[in-house]
Amino acid sequence: MSLARVELRGVSKSYSNGGQAVDVLHDVSLAAAAGTITALVGRSGCGKTTLLNLAGAMDFPTSGQVLIDGRDTASLSERELTGLRRRRVGFVFQFFQLLPTLTVLENVELPLLLAGAVKSSETALDRLQWVGLADLAARLPFQLSGGQMQRVAIARALVHSPDVLIADEPTGNLDTASGDQVLRLLADAAARFGATVLMATHSAEAAAIAQVRVRLRDGRIQAIESS
Amino acid sequence: MKLLRNLILRPLWRDPLRTAMTILAVALGVAVVVAIELAADAAAGSFRSSIESLTGKTDFEIAANGRIDERWFGRLAMLPVDARFAPVMEAQAILPGIGAVPLYGVDLMGRDAMLASAALARRLPADGGFTATIEGRAYPFHATALHSEGTAEFLLLDIARAQQLLNRYGKLDRIDVTVAPGEDRDGVERAIRAVLPAAYRIDKPGARSDENQTMLRAFRLNLRALSYISLLVGAFLIYNTVSVSVVRRRAEIGILRAIGASRGTVLTVFLVEALLLGVAGAALGVVFGRVLAAGAVRLVGETVNALYTTSRPAPVELTWGATLLAFGTASLVAFFCALAPACEAMNIAPTEAMSRGAHEHRARLRWRRGLLASAILAALAAAVSQAGPIAGYPIGGYIAALLAVGAAALAAPAMVLGVNRATRAVTRRRASSLLASRGLTASLSRTSVVVSALATAIAMMASVGIMVGSFRETVSLWLDDQLQADLHIRSAARPAPGEFPPVDAAVAAIVRSIPGIAASDFYSGMEFHFRGQRPTLGAGDMEVTRRTNRLRFLPGEDRDAILRSLPHEDRVIAGEPFAHKFGLHTGDRIDVSLGEHNVTFTLAGIFYDYAGGQGRMMMDRSTLLRYLPDQPLTSISLFLAPGADMGAIEHEIQLRAAPYGITIARNADIRRLSMMVFDRTFAVTWALEAVAILVAVLGAANSLLALVLDRRRSLGLLRYLGASTGQIRGLILTEAAFLGAFAAILGLALGVALSLLLVFVVNKQSFGWTIQFHPPAGLLAGALLLIWAVTVLAGLYPARVASRLNPIDVIHEE
Q: Which of residues 11-50 of A touch B (CB under 8 A)?
C-alpha cells in the first residue's frame, strides 16, 4: 500500500476544443507524501494547472487514476467530492481570489460557513493570527496589498486544516519580499499542519523550498528531483 | 454598418437570453398600452345609429328628456320644408345565444313584420324564427333579412308595434330629420325650432356618441394611466440593461477611447442599443397588444356597460395611430432611460474604464445624495397633489404619483444599505445569506434599479388594492344606508346603465291593496340630457326616504329639512359625482328640460352617491309628474309593518303581478348583485396589475441572471471552497428572496402613498366620489407574499445557470 497521500497513476487528460481533442497531460505518474512540498515547474501551457486540478479532485483524468489517501477521486460521488473539498483540500490561486464584498475575517471563515461548522469566527481568527494579519480582520480586500491578500488566501485555504494544499503560482503576482513571506507560510503549513503541498511555479525560489521538484514539458514529466 | 454590427448587435447577440428578456419586458409594457387603447376605442363603440346605413345620413335628431310626445310628429310633417321626418323608438332585445341587440321602431307603413339586418339574420335560425326578450317579456318572432351592408346587427319593427311592446304609447325616442338636397338646411332647422317646445332639443347626428365619449373621458384617462404602469416598469428595466451593459463593457469602452473613438461615438453606441431594444419591444408589443385587445375589450366593455352606458363593442382595429403610439412611446422611453447610463459611459476616462470596482463604489457613496433628492421629490409630490383639477383631469395627482415613484427609486439604495446593515448580525450566520446580502449591496446601483422596478409594480398593486378595497367598503356602507326596504320590485328586464324599464301601473295598485306594507316608495328613474352628458334623474317619495333614514348628505347639510322641502316644489338634490361633474353647489339654480318644459330648479342639497358613473339628480315624484305626467314607475320599494310575513307578501305580489313581467328582490339579493357589479368593474384593473407584476418579475430574473454571469469567477471559487451545487442555487435564490423583500418593503410604503393620491385626489377629481380609507390588510399581505414567492421563483433559472458553471473554466478567466 502506498504511503503517498496524493498519487497520480498513469494519468492522461485531454479536452475537446471546437471538436478537436487537445492532449494536455500524457501518462503522468507521481506521488506526494504527507508533510511534503512538491513543486511543479515548467513553461506556461505545460499542464501544471491541469495537474493541480486533477490532484485537488476539481477535475478527472481521461485515463489513469488520481488517488487521495488511496481512494480514486473518479469513484467519489458528488456529495463525497464536496465533502473532500470542505475537509481535506485547500486551494491557493495566483490572483488570490478573495471575495471583494467580504471582510478579511469573513473571507477566511467562508469555507467553515459553507461546511456548516460552529465557532467559525474563532478558527478563522486563529488562522489570521498564524499568518500575522489578525489586526486586519475587518478590512476589505481592496484595502490590502498583494502580499497581504495572498496571506489571507493561505489562511483561508488552511482554515479547515486540510490534508492537501494546492497552490497555483502562489507568488506569481507578488514582489520578492511578499513572495518570500508566502513561501515561508507554505513551508510552515507542510511542517506544522502536515499538509501535502502541491505547488505550480515559475519561480526558482519557490521551487527551492520543495522537497520534490517535478519538471513538466508538453504535458509529460521530464524529470523528478528530490532534495 | 460594421460599427453597428460589431459594437451594438454583436454584444446583444452574445447575451441572447438577457436580450430576449429585456425585449419581452418592453413588449409586454407596450402591449398593455396598445391593448387598452384599442380596447377602449372598441368597447366605447361607435354609438352611431346602426340604421344609418338604411335610412341614410340624417341632418338632425330631435329628442327630449322624457321622450317626445307623438303629436309633434304630425306638426313637423306639415311643415312647408323639403325634409323627411322619421320617428324612431330604440330599445334592446335579448336573443338567446346572441345577447342584446338594438331594436328600432321605425315607420314601416304599418307593416307587421320583424326585419333583421343581414349580419344578424346570418346568426338566426335558418327559418328566421326566434324568441326575443323585450322589457322582461319573451315574444316569438319570425324575421326577414334586410339587404343591408356592413357588420351592424339590429332588428326593425313598425313603430306602432314597438310602442305596444315597449308600453310607450304616444311617445317617441327621437325624430330623425333628413333635409333634401338643395333645401336650405338652416332654414329647416329654424322652421322646426319655431314649431317645437323650447325644451325639445335639435341635435347633430352622433350627439349621443359625443355624449358617451364625454362620459367616458375620465374613465379612459384613468385606464390609460394604469396601462402606462407596465411601460414605466419596463423603463426601469431598459435603464438597468443599459447600465449593466455599460458596467460590463467598461474595458471595451476604455479600449475604444484609447484607439480614437470619441465620446459621441460611445454615447451613440449605448443610445442606439437602447433604441434597438425599444423598437424591437414595440414591434413585438404591437402584435401582443392586438391579441390582448380582444380579451381587454370584454373586460373594458363590462366596466362601460356596468357603470356608464350600453354599448356593443365595435371590432378591434389596429390603427396606424395606435401603432405609431407604440413605437413612439417605446422609443422615447428607451431613449430617455438610456440617457443617464450612456452619458456616464461617454464620460469614462480610458484608464478608469479598466478599473472595475469604482462604479459600484461611487454608487455606494452617492446614497446620501439620493436620499436627499428623494426627500425633495416626496415634498414636491405632496405639494403638487394639492393642486385642483385642470380641465376636469387630475393632472396634479398624476404628476404627484410620478414624483412619488421617482422619490422611491432614489431612496432605494439607502433602503437596501440600511436594511442590509440592520440585519447584518443575522445574515452573517449562514454562507448563503452572508454572500447574498453582500452581493446585492456590492452591485448597489443595479440592485436598486431592480428593487425600484419591482417596488413600482408592487406599489401599483397595493395602491389600487387599497383604493378598490376602500371603495368597496365605502359602497358597502352606503348600501347599508340605501337598502332599508324589505322588498324591491322592478321590471324583469335586465337594464344597463341609462335604461329604466317601466313597471306597469297595475303593479302599484296591487301593492297598495296588500295589507302588511307600512310604506311604499314609488320611484321613477330616467336618463336625461344635461350639459352634454346623460346623467340619471330619479324621482321618489322623499317623505318615505326621510322617514326611513336613507341618503346621507355632505357635512353641514340638514337632511330632514332638505328632504321636507322637496315635495311639490321645483327643488332637487344631487349626488356628489353629479355636483362635482357639473361644478354645482347647494343653493345653485339649475336649468333642466323635462318634456316640453324648461324648468329652473334650486339645488337643495348634495348627498353621497355611488350608484354608477353618470351622476344622479333627484326630486320628489310629485314634482316630476307635474312636468312629465305619463312618466312610468321603474321600481317600488316596500317597507313592511312590524310582524308582517315577508314570504307571504312576496308570494302574493308574485302571483297577482305575474302578467306584468316583474321581479321581486330582497335586500340581501340586491346587495349581492350590486357588489358583483362592483367587483366586475375592476376586472380590467387587476389584469393590468398582473401584467405590471409580470414585467417586474421578468426584470428581476433578468437582473439575477446578469449578476450570475458577472460573478462567474466568485461562484466558481465557492465550488473550490467546498460549496455544493445546492448551496450555489440556494445563494441565488436567497438573493432573489432579498430582492423580493426589499421591493416589498419599498413597494408597500410607496403603495400606501399612491393609494392616498388615488383615493383623495385622482378619484375625487375624476369622478367626485368621497371614498373612506379602509386598507384591506389581509388581502394586501397575501398579495405581497405571493409576489415575493414569484420573485424567488424567478431566481430558479439563474440559480440553475449558476450551479452549472464549470469552476475550472471560470476561475481562470481573465
A: 49
The letter for the amino acid at B516 is G
Q: A81 in contact with B at a CB cutoff of 8 Å?
A: no
Q: State the average pLDDT over residues B376-400.
A: 91
| Subunit contact B724:A93, Cβ cutoff 8 A | no
Please name which of B608, B555, B545 lies closest in space to residue B578, comparing C-alpha atoms.
Answer: B608
Q: Which amino acid is at A201?
A: T
- Cell numbers describing residue B425: 448580525
| CATH number of the domain enclosing A41 | 3.40.50.300
8 Å CB contact of A115 and B722:
yes
The answer to whether residues A121 and A137 touch, using CB atoms and an 8 Å cutoff, is: no
**Alpha carbon separation from B78 to B75, B258, B329 (Å, rounded):** 5, 92, 57
In a domain, A17, yes or no: no
Q: Which long-range contacts (CB under 8 A, 24 or more apart) does B479-485 make?
A: B479/B670, B479/B671, B479/B674, B479/B675, B481/B549, B481/B550, B481/B551, B481/B552, B482/B550, B482/B551, B483/B667, B483/B670, B483/B671, B484/B548, B484/B549, B484/B550, B484/B639, B485/B521, B485/B548, B485/B637, B485/B638, B485/B639, B485/B667
Whether residue B322 is predicted with pLDDT greater than 50 in this model: the reply is yes
Residues A79-96 pLDDT 10s: 999 999 889 999 999 888
Query: DSSP character for B659?
Result: G
Domain presence at residue A65 = no
* Mean pLDDT across chain A: 91
**Does a structural domain hold residue A20?**
no
The answer to whether the Cβ–Cβ distance between B718 and A114 falls below 8 Å is yes
- Taking the Cβ of residue A191 and every Cβ of chain B, the question of whether any pair is shorter than 8 Å is answered with no
Closest partner CB to A101 (pick from B439, B718, B719): B439
Residue with cell 493570527: A129
> Which class for B308: exposed (0-12), middle (13-18), buried (19 or more C-beta within 10 A)?
buried
pTM, full prediction: 0.81
Residue with cell 375592476: B682
Rounded to an integer, what distance in angstroms lies between the CA atom of residue B662 and that of residue B136?
7
Cβ B698 vs Cβ B25: under 8 Å: yes
Asked whether the beta carbons of residue A110 and residue B431 sit closer than 8 angstroms, the reply is yes
Q: List the grid coordinates of B228.
A: 402606462
Domain residue limits at A197:
34-59+77-226
pLDDT at position B364: 65
Spatial distance between the Cα atoms of B680 and B682, rounded to a whole number of angstroms: 5
In this complex, which of B431, B438, B721 lies closest to A101 when CB atoms are compared? B438
**CA-CA-CA-CA dihedral for A103, A106, A111, A112, to nearest 10:** 170
The number of CA neighbours under 13 Å toward the Cβ of B461 is 31
B530 burial class (0-12, 13-18, 19+ CB within 10 angstroms)? buried
User: Three-class SS string for B336-399?
Assistant: HHHHHHHHHHHCCCCCHHHCCHHHHHHHHHCHHHHHHHHHHHHHHHHHHCCCCCECCECHHHHH
Number of domains forming the structure of chain A: 1
Q: How far apart are CA B128 and CA B665, in angstroms?
A: 36
Query: In the beta sheet, which residues pair with residue B89?
Result: B105
Grid cell listed for B253? 469602452
Whole-angstrom distance, CA of residue B113 vs CA of residue B589: 48
Amino acid at B497: P
- A48 lies in a domain? yes
Residues of A in contact with B430 (CB under 8 A): 113
CB B792 within 8 A of CB B736: yes
C-alpha cell at A221: 514529466
Locate the chain B residue with the closest alpha carbon to A94. B812
Whole-angstrom distance, CA of residue B8 vs CA of residue B755 = 41
Predicted confidence at residue B352, as pLDDT, reads 57
Q: How many CA atoms lie within 13 A of B751 on its CB side?
A: 29
Q: Pick from B226, B329, B211, B309: which is nearest to B762 by CA?
A: B226
